[in-house]
What does this fold into?
Amino acid sequence: MGQDKIIIENLDLYISKAHILKNVNTTIPEKKITVILGPSGCGKTTLLKSLNRLTDIYPDVDITGKILMNGHDLLHPDVDITELRRNMGLLSQRPVPLPMSIFNNIAFGLKISGRRNRLFLKKRVEHYLNQANLWDEVKDRLHEPASKLSIGQQQRLCLARGLSVDPEIILADEPTSALDPLSSKAIEEKFLELKQSYTIVVVTHSLRQAKRIADNVIFMYMGEIVEQGPAEEFFSNPKNTRTQEYLSGVFS
Amino acid sequence: MSFITNILPTKSTLRKVEEYSFRAIMYLCVGIIFFLLIAIIWGIIKKGFPALSWEMISSVPEGGFYFGKGGGILNAIVGSLYLAIGATLLALLVGLPVALYMNVHLVHRKKLVNVIRFCLDLLWGVPSIVYGVFAFSVMLYLGARVSLLAGIITVALFIIPVIIRTIDEAMKSVPQGLMEVSLSLGATRTETAYKIFVRQCMPAIVTAVMLAFGRAIGDAAAVIFTTGFTDSIPTSIMQPSATLSLSVFFQLSSPMEEVKARAYASAALLTIIVLIISITARYFSSKYNKSRIK
It folds into this structure.
């Protein structure tokens, strides 16, 4: 099953003494879609956000263990955190456009990394909006505030923005939970296309979505990884009783 | 069925009474505020406008001005503008970075930030005359004389808490997702602060500047010890300067009616300056309001 992009070893995370992640050991394969599945409050989002150390901005977080990417420990204090985060595009639960125009939402990441040539920016913005199937809808109003777009359009804008800084990994936290079925489908199809060139990690509590897109599944319950493995095996032949219960809908 | 029809009217009547009485209280409160505002403005206009003349706003006091002779209060108008603009800019220069630091860099240190907030609220509550006396004692120690600079620094000190806390309240409600997104695009915390938070909170920053400017230009207590009073327009920040609020104070203490009328004219000018600056600031902040994330 391909190469491992990220290896997580003995990861423990506490938020003001509450044990949120309990001895997490897992691997995330390169250029595949890994789905983190589990009921609400099981630590899925926290695990996702510790991958690019967004957990730094939460109060009273205590984290131990190792997260290795390309052989470097992301939790090491000497890591260039800015560069690390740029390497991972984030798609959040609700779309969060930046408080600026559609054009600048995409150009922001490029501008702060020092590329300010207007012609270059124009080309890149068009390219990434096309990648997210949004260009045709917004090409005539690139300078309007991004907050005026519909929710579905905003989420595609956020995807385009995430791609704009040329990451290797896409982290998506329940990216379709606020969207209508059509927009959700568009995002899912995009993921299936993007996995050719990106490693994608998707958090979801939708079993059906997981079945549609997952190559690799991590099933979490109460802060622990209960079962993990290739999607086909996971769905057709779950070994743990909790997993069997979850898959058959005993709890969700 | 009859049970329901019997009980519904009484319940809804009660709720109606509740609704109407609370509405009435709200109308009353709004009415009181408007009445006060109009009464103050009307009082100032009625007593001040007859004394308002081109000479009043275009010339400095001549000898015997405070006994009803010729001249104007240009010294105080210019002095007040210098002082209030200088102090507001200085306070913004200090206050904005503090507010950003509290909300972006210290976002994971909730307790520390709350201690800072508590201290700022205390400072906000200290009357401006205490700042004036404090600054005066420092000036005595340094052997400095009253000057525009001393006034600007003193006034800036007491409006800094106003600026920080007003901006801080708005930044507290910036969605956490916005910071996560900015960071994950490879922005540093400082870039997130100045490129995202400042934009998102622009209306609050304008409000903060307005509040601070209003306090700065209207204050008389802190400047009386630090800026002094003079009949000429200051040509350097090391010179003393007149202020409108003190000008109102001195003229209003006069027993002569025509001098008192001029005090009201000065007050009217002060109000008009604040009004013009408020409206301009609102206009510019509304331009940024459109792209804010709700």
Remarks:
- Chain A touches chain B at residues 49, 52, 54, 56-61, 82-83, 85-86, 88-90, 92-94, 96-101, 108-109, 112-113, 145-147, 158, 161-162, 164-165, 171 (CB under 8 Å).
- The two ends of chain A are 29 Å apart (CA to CA).
- Chain A has two domains: 1-87+168-252, 98-166.
